Amino acid sequence: MRFSSLTLAAMAAAAVIALPAAAQDAPANVTFTRDIAPIFQRSCQSCHRTGSIAPMSLLTYEEVRPWARSIKQRIESREMPPWFIDRHVGVQGFKADKSLSDAEIAIVSTWVDNGAPRGNPADLPPPIAFDDMTKWNIGEPDWVVEIPEPFVVKAEAADWWGNLVSDSGLTEDRWVKAVETKPTEESFPVVHHAVTTAIDPDGEAAFLNEYALGKNGDIYPDGTGRLLKAGSQIRFNMHYHAIGREITDRTSVGLTFYPKGVEPERPIYALHIGDNEDLDIPAGEADIRHDGYYHLKDNITLTVFQPHLHNLGTRQCIEAILPDNSVQSINCANWDFGWHIAYNYEDGVAPLIPKGSVIHVISWHDNSDANRWNDDPRNWAGFGQRSNDDMSFAWLSWFTMNDTEFEAAVAAREAATDND
Ligand code: HEC
């Protein structure tokens, strides 16, 4: 076979097994001011500050100290920061990755075990300046589409998940260069996530963008872009979380376009693949697996992986079955219904997958009472559109390449990997 596992050689090389956190050394005299504060600035504070979405602020020593035990537990279980890629399987290297390394987890754990000492105040790094929430990170958009009506989140309310659909108002097809979804300045503390999908006039859906705090929007690489068809609708999948005061939201999606008549060389496609609508999730069972498949007709560079499951989902893996029948894992990610995270590959590691491959999507569900999202473990569960029904598929984004381009991309990747 011309395309063998060699094609994915760079991916295999990336799957280095790291040591578990406990096995790594952390300096013995860890202090908050010198060692911990910089980690929290990078990985926690965008959410953990007054007015943001997390329940408590983690800016100062006084704020952090009472949470030390809980912090240790949440970071060791990798529930915090919310980022669920399995670091021991498949491709590593994502844009906007604020997750902690095993070494950082070891440092924070050691600090907690040592009684969470403050350290020398002079070591404290200067506070970070947070982005102005009203600013579009993609620049001033050409086109803005809001949720259809203002959405009121009462002071006290259960979490709300659901879809809100707006007309895009586009009367001609346009190529999108950048896209960003964002709440308003007032509403960002109640908007846990907002995932936007474009639905074309034929009813075909394509994942557009995902808002989660700290994300900057997607600016597609030069020469690539997304086609948004005239008459498309925008679906906002929202998760609202009440914060004790009534807040009105008007989340919107901003788009910048290529000039009229300019078509990018490489369209980016976003597809849901490996859909399995025949889910059988027996009552009370904890570890139920389903499989889905997608046959690739083109050579691709995979740019984004976003698992999609509902309440009972716990984990999803994707792998490529290559034309020679060898199998390469691409990634696995745990799933928590509270967070919808799109994992954007760094350009230098984005998987190159040859045409004729099959992408295999493997999903796991937990219908036992151990799953905190489970309403009632006595019920059988199956496929459906409501969030208390279940689903399993992966949103993938990619661009295609002809054979010559693909071989060149593989050769360039191998040369880069050999130099490492
Ligand atoms: C993307 C936003 C975000 C980031 C980044 C983030 N958190 Fe959180 N955190 C939350 C939210 C929202 C909650 C409450 C919901 C939950 O528990 O999942 C939370 C809950 C917690 C809790 C549990 C609080 C409780 O009530 O028991 C701890 C501890 C915590 N975070 C620590 C951290 C630490 C430490 C970091 C950085 C290493 C971090 N978080 C990064 C959003 C975030």
Task: Outline the structure in words.
The chain contains six helices and 21 strands. It has 420 residues and is an alpha+beta fold. It folds into three domains: 5-123, no CATH class; 143-266, Sandwich (Jelly Rolls), CATH 2.60.120.230; 269-419, Jelly Rolls (Sandwich). The strands form five sheets. Strands 1, 4, 7, 8, 11 and 12 form a six-stranded mixed β-sheet that branches. Strands 13, 15, 18, 19 and 21 form a five-stranded antiparallel β-sheet that branches. A four-stranded antiparallel β-sheet has the order 3-9-5-6, with no helix packed on it. A hairpin with a 5-residue loop joins strand 5 and strand 6. Helix 2 (32-43) packs across helix 5 and helix 4 (68-76) packs antiparallel against helix 5 (102-113).
Number of helices: 6
Bound molecules: heme C
- The general outline is globular
Identify the quaternary structure here: single chain
What's the helical proportion of residues?
10-25%
- List low-confidence stretches: 1-7, 9-23
The ordered H/E elements are HHHHHEEEEEEEEEEEEEEEEEEEEEH
How does the helix and strand content classify structurally? alpha+beta
**Quick one: biggest sheet?**
6 strands, mixed
